[in-house]
Amino acid sequence: MTKRLTPCWSQRRPPVEFMDGLSYATIVEFAEPLARRRGSAFFVRQLMKLYFTEKQVPEMSTLGESQRRVVRHGAFDLFCQEHPPARWRVRLGNGIAVGIACMVAFTISHQFLFRLLIAVVTVSVIQLFIQSFLTERLRPYFRRYIETHPDEVARAA
To answer: Which pTM value belongs to this model?
Structure first.
């Protein structure tokens, strides 16, 4: 015969105390920065967002096509002023993408049109990741450019 025990929700548990007198909250305060540094499962970084169009970027969702183009170029110039090697890194990434696409295309097929199709698809996929990474890095610069150059953004409308 089994008895059913009803839980009493009004009962409070006493706080957990460890041998040194540290509470659980204190130990978590000490352990949290270490867990973040070590890559704990509790502190996993958010995955990179893929932006298929510039309209998906929250800072530029309300702008028109020509305004987005002006903001992107201006923000990239601001970014390159603070990080001078960035322009060459982007060019290097684009060159590597084309090189990988050519290598993949020439190893898979012998027909010219099929090679071209494979190269275009490979470059498009690699460029999606490169541009999404760059867009994520440029988001603060989008905000700054829109705040500091409202007349240029309005003129592009």
So the answer is: 0.60
